[in-house]
Amino acid sequence: PANSFCAWLTVEPREAARIFEELVAPQVASGRLRIERGWEPVKVELAGNRVAGVNFTKDNTLLEVRARVTIDASDWGDVIQLSGAKWSAGPDAKARFGEPSAPEQITESNRREMNPLTWCVVVRGSTKENIIPEPPGFDPRRYFGCSRETRTNFLATGWPKGVLFMNVPAFADTTHPGGPYSPPVNIYTHRRLVDAAHQQLPPEREALFFNWPPQDYPLDVWPKSVADALDATEPGASKKNLVALTPAQRRIVFENAKRHSLGLLHHVQKLEPRFRRLELTDEFGTPDRLPPKPYVREGLRLEALTMLREQDLRTPHNEPRWAKFMPDDAVFGFQFNIDFHPTRRQFLGDDPAAPWATIHTATRNWSTHTDRGMFPLRGLVPVERDGLLGAGKNIGVSSVVQSALRLHGQMMLCGQASATVAWLCLNDGVQPRELATNPQRVRDVQRTLVRGNGGPGVLLWPYHDLPPEHAAFEAINLLSVAGMWKPDGDSVFFQPDREFSADEWSALLARLPDAAREKLKAVAAPKTRTEAARTAWSALAQ
After folding, report:
1. Tag placement on the chain: N or C end, fewer CB within 10 Å?
2. Please, are residues 3 and 192 in contact by the beta-carbon 8 Å criterion?
């Protein structure tokens, strides 16, 4: 019920939390799953080349966990770092992967440059007007680029050319009848969670989620107050990439990012009265009423057996086709633009103590077209460490590709894939690096993912019209990934009910193994694509 600019469907944070808690509750009750919260990893135990366990601390208490396989899905790859596994962060030089948009050289000006993080803000309807206090360090000049109402102020401030300015209103009374991404663009409905006014709900049910581009917090260089605080903890800490900072040092950065987001809320409440009947939610249970962590667009990248590169995905076409690299060990399909929010911080007058705004660089921008791609199992597996798998954003991608592989749904698919690999490794007594080079075990992982486990299966080959409940979902996915079914080169649709000719059937049979082809020699040619896929798969089923 959001009528949001950014999505057909939205979910309120507390409801999302409830759904996930209910999802895992049976496993917790059975003793198969134990959830620990609030711990920070401090040491990884190695047995030779294998990660054998992780030590955590919380409130001066030590927790030792021993495991045959460890999956690191943390925001900053803390276990990967502590294990000594190879990783990277920040931009890759062009010489590394030969990517078209990669910088020629890594210099002091760009080596910490990453997609910015955002400390999101959730507000709910209130019966009284309210303007939150100015956060420490608030300067209105930082927010003049948020909407067109302050365009005159923005220009008068003297921001350099190219600094982000959102030439849209702060508020528009709209239900976006044309659907997501239809005008009018405005701050209020950009990521609205509940549209109480147009849904005849009480005003208190109104809910907004602030993730507005000027709210982004760049990571290339810090404001002077942050740099000074970091260097006070360790000389030179302000010159490190955020990924390489300690958890305590990152909290210094996070506190400043929170203040920046609260400053935006204060700014729009002063600017537009309709924001004043909104107050910070209490559903996160945090003292400041903000989420317990930021939205991380880019973090640590695992050095994996396979690394996805820009040229594997990028396309000159306006509509996606199939990516140039479609790995036969795919564990999920995906497609999203190469999408960098402004990656650099621009200080007013080049003074690190002054207000700042954000700016794109020439080669890092949003909405760069990509084709439909697939993520390889080998992209989850470290090049040299056993007993360890990556997940979340800690996977085998370049910095450019991570901008296209960072959405929440994609990260959940990473988790499903890593967990499935871990399960099979434990079941068969093998290491992830061994499994990744065994075609039969890779097929076992793919079959498990496609079939699901009490839930929808995973789409491996990213057809646009193949839902998990389709009768031939398994057959079509696995035949396509194995190279036996040849998708149309100029269409991302499978078209399951399309007529299947005798010539197409003969060509499909020719791509099947001899034993399967022999089984189907006397079978009549199927009439549709669905029938053809199911018939061929039935001869291969194991």
Report:
1. C
2. yes
- Among 44-48, 220-224, 488-492, where is mean pLDDT lowest? 488-492
Mean pLDDT of 9-37: 96
- The Cα 89–Cα 107 span in angstroms is 14
- 319 within 8 A of 411, measured Cβ to Cβ: no
**pLDDT band, residue 542 (cuts 50/70/90):** low
Which stretches of 177-309 are assigned E, i.e. beta strand? 192-194, 207-210, 278-280, 301-302
* Ordered alpha helix ranges (H), 297-430: 310-313, 399-402, 408-428
CA 448 to CA 438: how far, in whole Å?
16
Q: Residue 41 in contact with residue 35, Cβ under 8 Å?
A: no
Give per-residue pLDDT as tens, 215-249. Answer: 999 999 999 999 999 999 999 999 999 999 999 99
Helix boundaries (H) for 75-135: 78-83, 94-97
Both ends of the chain: CA-CA distance in Å? 45
Q: Which amino acid is at 60?
A: N
Q: What are phi and psi of 377, to 5 degrees?
A: -55, -40
Determine how many CB atoms are found less than 10 A away from the CB of residue 79.
Answer: 22
Q: Is 77 left (phi over 0), alpha (psi -120 to 50) or beta?
A: left
Q: Which amino acid is at 532?
A: A
Short-list 347, 410, 409, 351, CA closest to 379: 410
The beta strand positions in 212-305, using DSSP E, are: 278-280, 301-302
Torsion of CA 216, 219, 221, 225, to 10 degrees: 70
Residue 236 has what pLDDT? 98
Both tokens of 503, joined, read: 């010539």
**Angle CA(88)–CA(92)–CA(98) in degrees, nearest 5?**
130
Q: Distance (Å, rounded) from C-alpha 340 to C-alpha 363?
A: 9
Peptide bond into 247 cis (omega under 30): no
Contact present, 313 and 371 (Cβ < 8 Å): yes
The answer to whether 317 and 369 are in contact (CB under 8 A) is yes
pLDDT at 160: 96
Cα 512 → chain centroid: 36
For residue 449, what is the enclosing H or E element?
helix 439-451
